[in-house]
Write a structure and sequence with these properties.
- The longest helix has about 35 residues.
- The protein contains 22 helices and no strands.
- The protein has a single domain, classed as Orthogonal Bundle (Hydantoin permease), CATH 1.10.4160.
- α4 runs parallel beside α10 and α6 runs antiparallel to α19.
- With about 475 residues, the chain is an all-alpha fold.
- The two termini are about 40 Å apart.
């Protein structure tokens, strides 16, 4: 049970409190199910499909997805450890490195990205709803702004689920993954028949004329694949805080994340390769592809499944974290539900229809852009927990002013400097063509620079403090 000392702190509320023993009910299956339900989603399909549209052949695309997800599993498991050990969520863990108030820098950065993802998923759901209504009532196609209306309708559905609370997520998990997997298999069966078998589907060659041209696309594509789950690699303590043991959360995640992402991506890759054969162009959006089907029954069933699965992933992956992050801004006034409501409105403000306007905007702009900020946050937090503190945290002080994580009036400016330098180094590549590779590898560059800078600054400060005492 939390001590009365931290319960009276302005940095505490019941949503941010350390998970008690009775709340630690998630085992290996729970974490495997979490990743299966979050990986089997439309954006996984679209990420893989965008690699085909960008010019890769199916082998190159599968390898890119598998390597990227294996890489991101490493920071995922590293950040999972303190959540499972101490029962604390991401914004509270960030207080150890950024300070009890400075943690809001990391939390708000993560929250804004999640808001963007929330908007993207909601837009996809709105598109699916619009296509569904058009299939059932063709006259709907003549309604102006039909997609925007459906977007707002699906947004309201998300809002209602958020008001039900975090436990409602586990109910949705067991339902959505199987039905969306069935949709993927349906599309695969259609593609197999329409394209004339796997031979033609897999025969589409890479469109890169040289290895150097391939590398120019591979590097940002791999960075985008890592960036796809860079968000969850930060806020995974929001889930592992409920783990029964370290072993169970590690096994569950390690088994499910790379394998499920790769297998479901393979469906997107094969189907998109088939669209090149069938239509002469790569169609990376499954909702748009379904709209070309001639069987109303198949379209209706598939779109209903997409709506259900999109709702699940949106709540699980894009609301839990920002709700906690916004709550961290003002724990006494902003609850999990209030944070979720803020997320909903921010999702509209970030204009997801523009983020999905093309595969290049999605991979190079959205995924690569926010990876430049989240890579540095991951580098700082992992360095602080494993190198600086050697996995030892004083939990009560994470909720108190004046404790060991107070730093300078609640802010560890050394972490902020390391964050700025890491993100700044990666973003230089966006404006200076000669060093474009810095932006193409934005997550990796940001992580490495911030890790090294944070370690050096903290070590230098420690040496100065020791010298002052002598």
């Amino acid at each position: 049970m939390p001590s009365s000392r931290i319960e009276s702190s302005p940095l505490y509320n019941k949503d941010l409190a350390p998970a008690t023993a009775e709340r630690r009910t998630w085992g290996t299956y729970s974490f495997a199910a979490l990743w299966v339900s979050m990986s089997v989603n439309i954006l996984t399909y679209m990420l893989a499909a965008s690699l085909i549209q960008g010019g890769m052949n199916w082998k190159q695309a599968v390898a890119t997805v598998f390597i990227g997800n294996t890489i991101v599993l490493i920071p995922m498991l590293l950040n999972s450890h303190p959540g499972a050990r101490y029962g604390i969520p991401f914004p509270v863990l960030a207080r150890a490195s950024f300070g009890v108030l400075g943690a809001n820098f990391a939390a708000v950065l993560r929250a804004l990205v999640a808001c963007g993802w929330f908007g993207i998923q909601t837009w996809i759901g709105g598109e699916a709803m619009n296509t569904l209504i058009t299939t059932l009532a063709p006259g709907w196609a003549r309604v102006s702004h039909g997609t925007a209306i459906c977007f707002m309708a699906f947004w309201l559905i998300n809002l209602l689920v958020i008001l039900k609370g975090i436990e409602y997520i586990r109910l949705l998990q067991g339902i959505s993954a199987p039905v969306l997997l069935a949709v993927g298999l349906l599309l695969l069966a259609w593609a197999y028949k329409a394209a004339g078998g796997f031979g033609p589907m897999l025969s589409a060659p890479s469109r890169f004329v040289s290895f150097s041209d391939f590398l120019k696309f591979l590097i940002p594509a791999l960075n985008g694949t890592v960036g796809f789950w860079a968000t969850l690699s930060l806020n995974i303590p929001d889930f592992t805080r409920f783990a029964r043991s370290q072993r169970q959360q590690v096994i569950g995640q390690a088994l499910a994340l790379p394998t499920t992402m790769t297998l479901y991506s393979l469906i997107g890759i094969l189907v998109t390769s088939a669209t090149v054969v069938i239509y002469g162009t790569a169609i990376w959006d499954p909702v748009q592809l379904l709209s070309r089907f001639h069987s109303p029954v198949a379209v209706v069933i598939s779109l209903l499944a997409i709506l259900l699965a999109t709702l699940n992933v949106n709540i699980g992956a894009n609301v839990v974290s920002p709700a906690n992050d916004f709550s961290n801004l003002w724990p006494r006034k902003i609850s999990f539900r209030t944070g979720g409501i803020i997320t909903c409105f921010m999702g509209i403000a970030l204009m997801p229809w523009k983020l999905l306007s093309s595969y290049s905007t999605f991979i190079f702009g959205w995924l690569g852009g926010y990876a430049a900020f989240l890579g540095p946050v991951a580098g700082i937090m992992i360095c602080d927990y494993f190198v600086i503190r050697r996995r030892v945290l004083v939990v009560d002080d994470l909720y108190l002013r004046g404790g060991i994580y107070e730093y300078s009036r609640g802010f560890n400016w050394l972490a902020v400097i390391a964050l700025a330098l890491g993100a700044g180094t990666a973003l230089v590549g966006l404006v200076v063509p000669a060093v474009r590779i810095l932006y193409s590898y934005s997550w990796f560059v940001g992580f490495a620079v911030s890790f090294v800078v944070y370690y050096a600054l903290m070590k230098l400060q420690r040496e100065r403090e020791i010298a002052a005492l002598e």
